[in-house]
Amino acid sequence: MRRSAFTAEPLLPGGRRRQAGVTLVELMVAIAVALILSMAILGVLVFSASSNKNNTSLGTMNNNVRGVLTLLTRDANSAGFMLGAAQAQCSLTLLHDSKLNTQPPAINPVWEQDQTHGGNLPFSNNATSYPPSAWSNNHTQILLFAASPSVPQYTTTGASPNALLPAPISTVAYGSSWAAGTGAMSTGTLQLASVAGLSTGDTAMLEVPMSGGLVCMRIPVSSISGSAVTSSPGSQFMPSNAFSDFATQITASSSSYGTLGISQLQHARLIDLGQSPNSMEIIEYWIDDSNGYPVLMRSTYSALTDQLITSDALAPGVVSLQALFGTLPSGTQPGTATPTFKAWSDVSATDQVVSVAVAVVTRSLYDDSSYTAPTTISIPPPASGLTSPDTFASYSVSTAEAHRHFQVDTFVIALRDSTWN
């Protein structure tokens, strides 16, 4: 007879009813399977998260380097522009500042300086902590550019546009203090054909034609009396022994310039730069590690007052910045010969610098336990087919960086024109 749906379940011996559901063994098997699946899914999620983090980090490195390239190209294109004022470019520019407690530095449109642990930046008395003292990568460099940010800022006080004094320094008698053999070079007084546009407190650039090129010296306008302009020796921008100290610095820079004397000063021109602190700029690219991780920085200083204008963090993770300079022999027309790339220490006074090659090594900000970096990161030469007696230094990976990803970017930036002729 067919059982009704409402027929009661027959009793087991002892009056117990049959139990419906899973056994303990089945439950444990199900839990084990679920645990295995969960661990697999978790592993996929962890791998995906790690991969996404690494991809994001690498993408961020790419974006940062692109931004650095844009700024470097802009600064390189402006290098030397208006550095020698409105006319011919300066072959050598001397900026003296008593606050720096150093010899008057020679300024070029673009140059490089090695950065040592605990050393000062060229235009700052603030010591930097990068590279670490125990680190072998001591080839980290500071890349510098000198330029005017814009033409309109090149104005005199109360005058526009920039006023070039129309006549050279007067050849009339300078008085007994300028007579030969009487220590004339220790005075800071110049006799001018015109003082139009000059004001006390202005900064000026004195352009002196010498046998090795145009030598420019930054001097202050301390006082004006008739056609005589005095730059007080020992004051800011003028060394204690006035032009005598500048003469020593010129000789130390290169013997090709000859000796600075009264006859050269009499044929010089004085360019009034006014009192605007930002009419000339020195731009520094350097690496800061003061916060515990390396960051590529861009600092801008006034070339008139040496004061810091801005300092911006560009790219975290940059561990090496290097530069080589594309040079041509003096008198060679750019574009007619292949440039030779040299380290700054090998660039001679007769070289034309027509381009700058930059290498940037960047590391990821986080460890990737599944990745082991090579012990040495090689940096390729500037470009195929270019002559390179000097090369970029390889980067040695430290133990702490063993699980970081590294990226190497090299690029060559052509300077707008040949500024060292």
Walk me through this protein's architecture.
With about 425 residues, this protein is of the alpha+beta class. The protein folds into two domains: about 55-150 and about 280-415, no CATH class; about 155-165 and about 185-275, no CATH class. It contains three helices and 19 strands. It has helices at about 25-80, 245-255, 260-265; strands at about 90-95, 105, 110-115, 140-145, 190, 205-210, 215-220, 225, 230, 270-275, 280-290, 295-300, 310-315, 320-330, 340, 350-365, 375, 395, 405-415. The longest helix has about 55 residues, at about 25-80. The chain is elongated and about 130 Å long. Mean pLDDT is about 75; it is low at about 85-90, about 150-165 and about 170-180.
Q: Could you write a compact summary of the structure shown?
A:
With 421 residues, this protein is of the alpha+beta class. The chain contains three helices and 19 strands. It has two domains: 54-151 and 278-414, no CATH class; 156-167 and 187-274, no CATH class.
Set out the fold topology.
Elements: H1 24-78, E1 92-94, E2 106-107, E3 110-114, E4 141-147, E5 189-191, E6 203-210, E7 213-220, E8 223-225, E9 228-230, H2 243-253, H3 262-266, E10 269-274, E11 281-288, E12 295-302, E13 308-316, E14 318-328, E15 340-342, E16 352-363, E17 376-377, E18 395-396, E19 406-414
Parallel strand pairs: 1-7
Antiparallel strand pairs: 1-2, 3-4, 4-11, 5-9, 6-7, 6-10, 8-9, 11-12, 12-13, 14-15, 14-16, 16-19, 17-18
